């Protein structure tokens, strides 16, 4: 659905209200990127400073060999781990063999634990639709969940958003809010805490509109740096990351905590490359978990 003139005006108002961040840096020793809200690159350390002047920083190695730098410094208090679509419907073996998604669970748990230690908040962003969403959903989105049109209704990889799943898969409506199939993947449930935030989405991206709850919460929270994990790398994860990049959040992809069922054309590798060279930075769970902090 194209944005209306009112929505465009609202977006412009949001941008204009973005706070100016003043950070003291010796520009002779650092290269500045951005307008008011800047990154600083130190040629000596080959690191980007994304901390906006924070005293306590986490130093994360990233992308070495791709863009000839060694990583980033981030402010844990203004960082959010965004875990996308790690839901029973996408990962649980009763629905499909998502071996790449299951592979992400162990390293993701390590990253979650590191985030808890460093005071980095965790966000669970999942499909969770309503009847209203079904009425206003663009046709391209619904088609993406009905690819098995040549099969009898209810069969195939995709059964259709809102359709009743087979009884052996719970019999609930597909990816509806409050259902087991839309809930967080069972092995990860033990790692959810009351301090976490959870958001539902009805598109590949959870940040496509400034009126979405997650979009509003992020702006109000002051979070600036987003760590990305989940499934599928080339679909919902990339869609959300792309919108986050366009809206001005820092984006860091934790590569081995992201998986996809797209097994052709090097989909995951292309995503990793594009994030590392254009939209942000790429690291891995072992590197992130070993990251030292200062202050």
From TrEMBL:
The keyword Coiled coil does not apply. It comes from the Eukaryota. Signal peptide: none annotated. One of its GO terms (molecular function) is hydrolase activity. Residues 79-264 form the Isochorismatase-like domain. CDD domains: cysteine_hydrolases. Keywords: Hydrolase. Belongs to the isochorismatase family. This is Isochorismatase-like domain-containing protein. It comes from Salinomyces thailandicus.
């Amino acid at each position: 659905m194209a944005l209306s003139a009112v929505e465009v005006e609202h977006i412009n108002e949001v941008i204009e209200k973005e706070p100016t961040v003043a950070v003291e840096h010796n520009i002779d020793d650092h290269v500045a990127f951005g307008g008011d809200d800047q990154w600083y690159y130190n040629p000596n350390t080959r690191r980007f400073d994304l901390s906006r002047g924070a005293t306590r920083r986490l130093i994360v190695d990233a992308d070495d060999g791709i863009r000839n730098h060694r990583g980033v410094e981030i402010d844990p208090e203004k960082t959010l781990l965004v875990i996308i679509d790690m839901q029973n419907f996408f990962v649980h073996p009763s629905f499909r063999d998502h071996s790449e998604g299951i592979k992400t669970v162990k390293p993701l748990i390590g990253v979650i634990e590191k985030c808890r230690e460093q005071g980095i908040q965790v966000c669970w962003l999942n499909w969770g639709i309503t009847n209203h969403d079904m009425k206003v959903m663009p046709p391209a989105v619904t088609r993406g969940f009905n690819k098995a049109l040549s099969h009898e209704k209810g069969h195939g990889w995709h059964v259709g958003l809102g359709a009743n799943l087979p009884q052996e898969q719970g019999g609930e409506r597909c990816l509806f809010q409050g259902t087991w199939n839309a809930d967080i993947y069972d092995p990860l449930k033990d790692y959810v805490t009351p301090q976490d935030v959870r958001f539902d989405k009805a598109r590949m991206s959870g940040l496509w509109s400034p009126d979405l709850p997650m979009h509003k919460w992020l702006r109000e929270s002051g979070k600036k740096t987003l760590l990305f994990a989940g499934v599928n790398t080339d679909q919902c994860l990339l869609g959300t990351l792309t919108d986050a990049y366009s809206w001005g959040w820092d984006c860091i992809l934790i590569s081995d905590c992201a998986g996809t069922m797209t097994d052709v054309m090097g989909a995951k590798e292309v995503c990793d490359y594009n994030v590392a060279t254009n939209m942000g930075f790429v690291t891995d769970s072992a590197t992130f978990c070993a990251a030292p902090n200062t202050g």
